[in-house]
Amino acid sequence: MLYLVLKxxxxxxxxxxxxxxxxxxxxxxxxxxxxxxxxxxPNTFMDPIVIASLLPQQVYFIAKSTVFSSPLHNWLFHRMNxxxxxxxxxxxxxxxxxxxxxxxxxxxxASRKTLLIFPEGTSFNERRLRKLRTGTxxxxxxxxxxxxxxxxxQILPVGLNYSDxxxxxxxxxxxxxKPIAVAPYLSQYQQDEKGTVNELTDHIRQQLEKLIxxxxxxxxxxxxxxxxxxxxxxxxxxxxxxxxxxxRDFLLTRAIMKGLAxxxxxxxxxxxxxxxxxxxxxxxxxxxxxxxxPTVEENNVLLRQTLARTxxxxxxxxxxxxxxxxxxxAYVIPSKVANALTEEQEFRAPIMLSVGIFSFPVLYAVQxxxxxxxxxxxxxxxxxxxxxxxxxxxxxxxxxxxxxxxEHWLLLRLxxxxxxxxxxxxxxxxxxxxxxxxxxxxxxxxxxxxxxLG
Length: 454
Fold this sequence. Notes:
The chain is α/β, with parallel strands linked by helices. Helices cover 64% and strands 9% of the residues.
């Protein structure tokens, strides 16, 4: 009962926390076990919440033993289906005994339950996949060997892609892969246990790599994001992909990364020179408090759109102020608590989500109580309660639109004044796009040549 109640609350919290929550290939998710779900781990406690919210069945979680740090945590987490696993780095110099964890896991699988494991072992706020530990493959193969009732055990790979793991109202793209049957590995496992465990682990890694964006270093990740800002829309127009926008964006980002990896290997000096040009261009935009320059198509309608949005913002300001006054504390408290509790970016989002689940209903109840005290009307109370979340979302949207309009006015002032800075930025942008176009054609030509030779 506790699990079901928390799942309902957290599912509602996810709907509020994320601006877009998109799932690809949801039909590939089995609705019953025995099942092992494996995923990358960029966002600590947010990752299991996201995945468990998508599965209709109860999910059991393999969690590091350090979270069971008190009798209260021990009582609560066991009732939330968490199974503690001991890691060597948590107890340096001590022997590690996970017999109880494996026994509990086998019992869950034998009861046709679903287990969620993050085989990287630790969470990192990075767009990459760290070395996978072999425990998942070892558990799966051992379970199939020892328990006839789990002969049909499958491993489901899930890729988690966050636009900004630490920011409220960001996006998450959940990319579900095809389930991996464990039974075909059984005969090989009986002949060579270690080799088969490593082979299955490597297969899991390959499947996860197909489901996420991987940038090997922070510098490369920064460069990919900068290229996306300048070039992604033009690339999308030239690359017809029959898929929803979120899938198209994912595929385009992976294509940019593959192209960059190719040139880093074959022409690293060329990439470094381009990186310096991109850094200079981005730095100048930041100094002007701009995120990007508009494309030619956008530039043609920029003034008209800016005037229309400015008028709309002016007319709807009273609604914004109503939403701001009634939702300010509920929105601010989660962020303040996260800032106070942690400096680690990976923990900000789950803390904000957890605090927000309580801060919103508590503050809404207090505000409703104040209204009832001064104006005891059931109708007005109901209308007020309905208006609170709606006005909160409106205030957020208003603020984001205000920031965009402000940026558009800065752009208009820059371009209408015939500033040499504006001309310089436009020229730099054109040169960057030209270089990217040349590189794209070279890469496609080389790929086509390799395919012909193959």
